[in-house]
Amino acid sequence: MAMDAIEELYQRILTRKSASPDISYTARLFTLGEDEIVKKVGEEAIEVILAAKSQGNLRLVEEVADLTYHVLVLLALRGVSPTDVAAELARRQK
Ligand SMILES: N=c1c2ncn([C@@H]3O[C@H](COP(=O)(O)OP(=O)(O)OP(=O)(O)O)[C@@H](O)[C@H]3O)c2ncn1[C@@H]1O[C@H](COP(=O)(O)O)[C@@H](O)[C@H]1O
Questions:
Q1: Keyword annotations for this protein (predicted)?
Q2: Contact (Cβ atoms closer than 8 angstroms) between residue 21 and residue 27
């Protein structure tokens, strides 16, 4: 996954923290709170597993995109940036 695309989406998600829930799914998620967002992450992770086990790569890509988006919403809620995750991955590199 291109880091630029992740960062761009993350920045757009951050702007939805102050947007109206009436016009934005992301703003609605922020209004629902952490428990609901974590639940969505879990559901999307299960969708990734199901796609991997029984569907083609196109569906797998779609489900990983859904999961990535919801993880970014969780990170945004917690004030963690994808750059922090990239730094952790870089630290692990051998
Ligand atoms: N990348 C995404 C994205 N990926 C997935 N989703 C939404 O995540 C939901 C997936 O959940 P489900 O499949 O469970 O569908 P659902 O039944 O609608 O969801 P629930 O009502 O069950 O929560 C869908 O509503 C998708 O539209 C996304 N919603 C928004 N974005 C991006 O986030 C940014 C902000 O968008 P707004 O939220 O529209 O402001 C924009 O750049 C969007 O392109």
A1: Amino-acid biosynthesis, ATP-binding, Cytoplasm, Histidine biosynthesis, Hydrolase, Nucleotide-binding
A2: yes
Among 43, 34, 39, which Cα is nearest to 63's?
43
Q: Is 22 helix (H, G, I), strand (E, B) or coil?
A: coil
Helical (H) or strand (E) element with 73: helix 57-78
pLDDT tens track for 9-30: 999 999 999 999 999 999 999 9
Domain boundaries, the chain: 5-17+24-82
- Whether ligand 1 lies within 6 angstroms of the CB of 10 is answered as no
Atom of ligand 1 nearest to the CA of 19: 40
Q: What separation in Å is there between the alpha carbon of 4 and the centre of ligand 1? A: 20
The CATH number of domain 5-17+24-82 is 3.20.170.30? no
Please report the ipTM that was assigned to this predicted complex: 0.92
